[in-house]
Amino acid sequence: MLKNGDKTLKNILEGLYRKYNHKRFIPPDPLQFVYHYKKTADMEIAGFLAACFAYGAVEQIEKFLTALLNKMGNSPAGFIKNFSTQDKKLFKSLKYRFNTGEDIISLLEISKKVLIRYGSLENLFLNGYRNSDKNIIPAAEKFIQNLFKIHNKKTSNGLKFLLSDPAGGGTSKRLFLFLRWMVRKDEVDTGLWKKIDKTKLIVPVDVHIGRLSKILGLHNRKTVNLKTAVEITAGFAAICSQDPVKYDFALCRIGILENCTGRQNKYCPNCELAEFCREK
C-alpha cells in the first residue's frame, strides 16, 4: 500500500469518495442528463449519447446535449425507436465541434437498429460479454465493432471518433465512462446494467485522472493510452479489488470543481493530495 505520512492512499481516496460522491456534485458532468429521465430505456440512451459527446469544455458539452436531447422530447428511447427520414431534418444543422449533423444522424440510426433488434444497448453488449474475461475490454471491443456492423455503411472519421474502439489502443475514455455509469451502483452511478461484474470495469482516463493518478504513483507513463488505463485500474484494484473504478468520479472533482491543473491555485493548501503533489 502506498503511504503518505500516517495516511494510506486508501484512506485518502475513501475520504474523497465520502466528500464528493453525491448527486449534488454531478453537474456539470454529462452524467446529469441521465437523471433527467426515470425510465431505464431513456436513461440508457441518454447516457450513451451523453458519453459519446463527452469531450471538450463542459459548458460546450452541456449546451450541445441540451439541444440534442430537447429535440427528442420526453422519451429519447421512444424517439429513436421511431426515428424517421423526416426526423433527420431536425439534426442536419446540429454540430458539435468537428462532429457534423451527418455523424449525429448516423449515431441515431445505429441506436434505432440496436433498440429494434436487441431491445437495449445492454442486450447488445451482453452478446460479447464473458465473465471469464480478465476485464471488460474484449466485450467493449465487440460492442463497438457490432455497432459498426449494424451501421453497415461507409463510416465517417467523426463517427469513428464518437464510437472509439479500444482495439485501436486509445483510452476509449468515453466508452468506459458510459460503462461505469451503467454498471456501478451508488449515489452517482446508475447501476442500470445488472449482469456485468463491476470488477471488470476499466477506469475512464481523462486529463484529470491521467494527471492525478500519476501524482499518486499509479502510473508513470508519458503517453496516456489503453495500457495506461489498464495500469491505473490495476492500481485502484490493489486498493479496492471489488470496485476498482469506485474513486473515479470523486478524484475527477479535484480537477473539475477545484480547478486543479497541476499548477498552484487557491485550493492547494486544503487539497487532500497536496503532500503527494509536493513529493512530485
Q: Main sheet, how many strands, which sense, barrel? A: 2 strands, antiparallel
Q: Identify low-pLDDT runs.
A: 1-6
Distance between the termini: 18 Å
Helical segment count: 13
Question: How many strand segments?
Answer: 2
- Could you say which overall geometry the principal axes of the C-alpha atoms support? globular
Strand order of the largest sheet: 1-2
Structural class: mainly alpha
How many domain units?
Answer: 1
Helix content: 40-55%
Mean pLDDT: 93
Assembly classification: single chain
Helix/strand layout:
Blueprint: E1 3-4, E2 7-8, H1 9-20, H2 40-52, H3 58-70, H4 76-81, H5 101-118, H6 121-127, H7 137-151, H8 157-162, H9 173-183, H10 207-215, H11 226-239, H12 248-256, H13 274-279
What would a concise description of this structure say?
The protein is 50% helix and 1% strand. By secondary structure, it is mainly α.
Walkthrough of the structure:
The protein has 280 residues and is mainly alpha-helical. The protein has one domain (3-279). It contains 13 helices and two strands, in the order ββααααααααααααα. A two-stranded antiparallel sheet has the order 1-2. Strand 1 (3-4) and strand 2 form a beta hairpin. Helix 1 (9-20) crosses helix 12 and helix 5 crosses helix 7 (137-151). The longest helix is centred in the middle third of the chain and has 18 residues, at 101-118. The protein is globular and about 60 Å long.
